[in-house]
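stage 2 :: seqdesign
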């Protein structure tokens, strides 16, 4: 890539000019001329000053501004600091609390929690048998009449049988059935079985009058 700094120095040397000659004719300080020929534009007062010096230097050597200006801008921009780690990469490592509590962040958290809960539920169903929370009858309860109302809750995906008769389980896991029992001491057996074959059993003793 052709540099304006090299171009100015080479033309000056071909013309047999010294920096002191250029300084006297252009009124540009010699120290600035030296920095221009080295390409150290950041040591000049500012970019606008550097551009003005280069244009005047080039004009003195017979170079048109249409050539010196593009060459200067290209060389000046290439001298600017380019970070090893791009800025967008740095931002990825900065904790952004507002991003977490944005609508998108909340949605992502909700999805993660939902998926995690589903996995835990599936895993627990594979290992543990479904619970049976019996509301009625209570163990040892005395019942008037031969019909006993059996009610309770379990895993909504479980299959429930009462005295070997399958009963309907609601989406909330609730179940109920009216069971006919002979007078005297009776046992009611409730069995809940999940889809992985894990079973729970509860036996309730009742006294039927």
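stage 2 :: out
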């Amino acid at each position: 890539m052709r540099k304006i700094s090299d171009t100015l120095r080479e033309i000056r040397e071909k013309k047999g000019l010294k920096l002191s000659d250029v300084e006297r004719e252009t009124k540009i300080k010699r120290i600035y001329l030296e920095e221009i020929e080295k390409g150290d534009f950041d040591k000049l007062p500012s970019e606008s000053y550097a551009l003005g010096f280069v244009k005047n230097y080039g004009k003195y050597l017979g170079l048109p501004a249409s050539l010196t200006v593009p060459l200067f801008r290209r060389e000046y921009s290439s001298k600017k600091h380019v970070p090893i780690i791009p800025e967008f990469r740095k931002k990825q490592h900065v904790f952004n609390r507002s991003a977490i509590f944005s609508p998108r962040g909340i949605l992502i958290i909700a999805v993660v929690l939902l998926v995690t809960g589903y996995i835990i539920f599936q895993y627990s169903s594979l290992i543990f048998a479904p619970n049976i929370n019996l509301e009625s009858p209570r163990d040892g309860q005395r019942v008037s009449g031969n019909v006993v109302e059996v009610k309770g809750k379990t895993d909504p995906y479980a299959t429930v049988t009462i005295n070997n008769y399958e009963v309907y389980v609601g989406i909330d896991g609730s179940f109920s059935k009216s069971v006919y029992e002979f007078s005297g001491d009776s046992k009611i057996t409730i069995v809940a079985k999940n889809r992985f074959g894990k079973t729970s059993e509860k036996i309730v003793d009742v006294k039927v009058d």
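stage 3 :: structure notes
- Strands lie at 133-136, 141-143, 147-153, 159-162, 165-167, 174-180, 184-193, 199-208.
- The chain is about 45% helix and 25% strand.
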